[in-house]
TrEMBL record:
Pfam family, one: Synaptonemal_3
PANTHER family: SYNAPTONEMAL COMPLEX CENTRAL ELEMENT PROTEIN 3
GO BP term, example: spermatogenesis
Organism for this UniProt entry: Denticeps clupeoides (denticle herring)
Name listed for the protein in its UniProt record: Uncharacterized protein
Amino acid sequence: MTDSPSDAGLQGSGSADNLQLNKELERVIEATENTAVQLTWMAYDMVVLRSDPERQTSLRRLMEEIRRCEEINKSWVYKNFYDRF
């Protein structure tokens, strides 16, 4: 069996296709791993919150305070931005 130039061209494009598929596969695997990590943390958070109701109340208060701080920060930034002009 002899290798013709057209076979070499097909092999070259095949290896380029394989490289592209490997890159795509690595990207999909990475995204899947990230999703698995997020799901693991979500499950952990659910267990912690269910086992300690007081923590849930504390987290709710913390989130409310964070929202207030963000609102104050936004109003301060906008006020100082427009005061310059």
